[in-house]
Amino acid sequence: MTVSTIGSNATQTPTEQRSSGTGSVSPVSISNAGSQQSAPSASNDTVQISSQAADLRGLEAHISQLPDVDTSRVTELRNQIANGQYQINYSELADKILGFENDL
Fold first, then answer.
1. How far apart (Å, rounded) are the C-alpha atoms in residues 68 and 46?
2. What does the pLDDT read at residue 22?
3. 59, 34 Cβ separation under 8 angstroms
4. What percent of the chain has pLDDT over 70?
5. CA–CA distances in Å: residue 2 to residues 28, 37, 40, 100
6. pLDDT at 60 over 80
7. How many Cβ atoms from other residues are within 10 Å of residue 74's Cβ?
8. Contact yes or no for 9/17 (Cβ under 8 A)
9. How many domains does the structure of the chain reveal?
10. Which residues contact 54 (CB under 8 A, 6 or more apart)?
11. Residue 36 is part of which domain span?
12. pTM, two decimal places
């Protein structure tokens, strides 16, 4: 059985995908060594990835490129705290804590 997907080559095993530098693979026929009869023709199954899954894959790739820490924001907050300009909105903080607790 041959399986093809849009956007990836599912006919290869993961090892073959890593070792081959190309994206195309010709189908491999497998026969039973002890049998003299030819194997029945294999059907072609197709897997289609939804556009939503493709979008999620793209977002995941974009997110993996972002830094773990926004250093400019950290520097800005650090300067505000050092200068005594950082102000805490206690009402908003309490609402967010309660919202977090409700979500659990």
1. 38
2. 47
3. no
4. 60
5. 9, 20, 13, 48
6. yes
7. 10
8. yes
9. 1
10. 7
11. 1-49
12. 0.36
pLDDT number for residue 6: 53
Query: In this structure, is residue 18 part of a structural domain?
Result: yes
Distance CA(64)–CA(58), nearest Å, equals 10
Q: How far is CA 54 from the centre of its chain?
A: 9
Residue 13 scores a pLDDT above 60: no
The two three-digit tokens of residue 28, written as one number = 């491999």
Residue 5 lies in a domain: yes
In a domain, 14, yes or no: yes
Element (DSSP H or E) covering residue 2: strand 2-5
User: Is residue 23 assigned to a domain?
Assistant: yes
* pLDDT tens-digit series, residues 34-57: 545 555 667 788 888 888 998 999
Sequential DSSP letters for 27-88 = ------TT--SPPPPPPEEEE---HHHHHHHHHHHHHHHS-SS-HHHHHHHHHHHHTT----
